[in-house]
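Deliverable D5.2: sample structural annotation.
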Amino acid sequence: MIVSRALIPALLVALPAYSAEPPKAADPAGKVSYYKDVRPIFAQHCNGCHQPAKPQGGYITTSYADLLKAGERDKPGVVPGKPAASYLVDQIALHDGKAEMPKGRDPLNPIQVKLMTDWIAQGAVDDTPASAKTVPVDAMNPPKYSAPPVITSVAFDSKGEFLAVAGYHEVLLYSAKDYKLVSRLIGISERINAIAFSPNGERLAVAGGSPGRFGEVQVWNHKKEDLLISAPITFDTVYGISWSPDGKLLAIGCADNTVRVLDPITGKQILQMGTHTDWVLTTAFSQDGVHLVSAGRDMTMKLTEVPTQRFVDNVTSITPGALKGGIMAIDRRPVVESVRTVKLFGGPLKLKAPKRLQKIPADTPGAVPKLYDEIISAGADGKPRLYKMHREVKREIGDDSNKVREYDPMSGRISSVAFSPDGKFFAATSSLDGKGEVRIYNTDTGTKIVCEQISGPAYAAAWSADGKTLASSGFDGKVWLHTAADGRLVKEFVVLPASKSGAE
């Protein structure tokens, strides 16, 4: 497939959500459409485990031609006109109240099973419009680019081995030593919105999907190019993926205004929070993994207690008009040594300890045991702000008491923020009128370094494991590498893969 430039991410998040709905009963005439009725069922319930990158049972459901083939059991999945001879029907049908497929998930509902069965009985016709038929994208048919892709996310692993870059239908994995292309991790999601390495650097998580059709979370063993998990989520693309510090949970934001948490080993959802009133674009766990902060187009940061799924508080002000524009990016500050006076209902308490490891003693008057976490946030108004994750004083109307400080604004909207490994600095990227900027701020003093030679709108940033290099990228498909100490450009390269083992 030849791919032209993707839409600017800033425009994407400004668009209204698609009103995609689960499959409904067939038309009054009883004719079942593969394209309109059956294909969406596969996308939501089957493609995660039956795609070219993860063909469980030797069976693939992502293309019509593959549906007619047999899997490892040598039984054809779909035999046109013969539901009883179609192994697919046997697998999705209930036997003693259980169905073999989808494996490990709830069975299809009776309407969905009937749609599948009726479609096969009616001849299993492929009515995909000619305009919608494309060459499948997979490892055997990788994306071909007519121009460099818009890059929406970049990430370094914690071991200093890899730099991952979001592309079209794929994540491109580069060596962090010489920045040569190592591999292409190709999946079913057209749009890759966010990527994140696990804390131990052994897994790569991806959030994306196909607009108006499905969202997807992927988990890769990137060293082996092995797709471990492909979990369909909602009926639109998903955003802002983040790992819990112990690597046992994954959080995402969704266009249906929810925040969801998944098990990265099984792909099963274990939390859903629906207190946002617009798209959720970004997430971050607390240092102990007990709390989750989420933010998005409703201009708020919200705090959720993960084990109980309880909404705790708005981290940001609740005063109407206090915040301007949606929040597009947040990041939690890593552990740093500090001396800090904490104002409590019963008086101040002075502590010297790593902020996010020292707990307030439970017997302190007015205190609730909590960890000291700070969150950097930014978005449409171009102004980074540092917040305490946990409230330390009683809320009053009109206050913004969790805010620690504001930083000098950038031109346009900020699409990403990222703390350095030691938490002493953070980077931010912005875009306005075809131009971009990448800055490095000192977290405590607010002094800033402007990275040189940014050639277009900037959407993503990531720090190397040693904190000495900042990678950023954006609209023109380039990755810029700057020295963190002075913002000097030391290397740039264009993401335009020519083959699996090289780049143009």
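Annotation notes: The chain has five helices and 35 strands. Helices lie at 9-14, 34-45, 64-67, 87-92, 110-121.
The annotation will be released with the project's public dataset once the embargo ends.
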